[in-house]
Design goal:
mainly alpha
């Protein structure tokens, strides 16, 4: 499959065979960096090697050319504040180019993308991110504990860490249910309990403990319920 072959070439060229020194030189010198052109030549060569078909030489060349254009745009427009966004945009664009080649050769079709089962799973996964967080926040709004000013417990944390932890835990629970590995759900509950135990023990606030417990159960409950409903829905349509 062209998609798999080009993805392997991409992973090797962008991560395994690209030293940090190349990345730093490209960020410092941008289009004047010789490593940008070495990097593109490496990608083109890897595409040739993995495709291993002389009739597909143009695919390797176009893949290399697109890689240069995308990387050149990233290097030209990114800055310290936007570096992370440009990294993900860069990777998405590379994958879309590879998907375009795969679509051209009939490996990917609109029918696959519009498959009802996949759309249900995608909708459920999307619901378990920001929408589920909003539901949980509203349900807990009347119980949000007021921090005790007498308690000198350090409450500093990473920006939006709790939000993204919630996203990840719900998506993992949903994934475990969809692949029939319920033991993974138990592992997630146990793991979160262990990490939360020390914080709650130090806080010495019963209201905070109850608030966190209710929030955790709501988060896991929504993920489990969504997983069961989607799984049952898919099973009914296949009968």
């Amino acid at each position: 499959m062209i998609f798999t072959q080009l993805i392997l070439a991409h992973l090797l060229g962008d991560f395994v065979l690209q030293p940090d020194s190349w990345v730093r030189d490209k960020e410092n010198h941008k289009l004047r960096s010789r490593y940008l052109y070495i990097h593109v030549l490496l990608h083109t060569a890897l595409s040739f090697i993995f495709l291993w078909d002389k009739d597909l030489w143009w695919v390797a060349l176009l893949n290399g050319a697109s890689h240069f254009i995308i990387d050149a745009c990233k290097l030209s427009f990114q800055n310290i504040k936007t570096k992370k966004r440009w990294f993900f945009a860069d990777q998405i664009m590379h994958i879309l180019v590879i998907a375009g080649f795969s679509f051209y050769f009939g490996e990917i079709s609109i029918n696959i993308l519009m498959n009802k089962e996949w759309l249900k799973i995608a909708a459920a996964a999307l619901f378990l991110t920001a929408p589920a967080s909003v539901f949980i926040k509203i349900l807990l709004s009347s119980w949000t504990p007021i921090p005790d000013t007498k308690d000198h417990l350090q409450t500093e944390s990473l920006s939006n860490a709790g939000k993204y932890i919630g996203y990840l835990e719900r998506l993992l629970v949903f994934t475990f249910i969809m692949v029939n590995h319920w033991e993974g759900v138990g592992f997630m509950v146990a793991a979160k309990s262990v990490f939360r135990f020390s914080d709650l023990a130090q806080a010495k606030q019963r209201k905070l403990t109850e608030y966190v417990l209710i929030g955790t159960l709501l988060s896991f409950g929504l993920a489990v319920l969504t997983g069961i409903l989607i799984k049952q829905s898919i099973n009914l349509t296949t009968i």
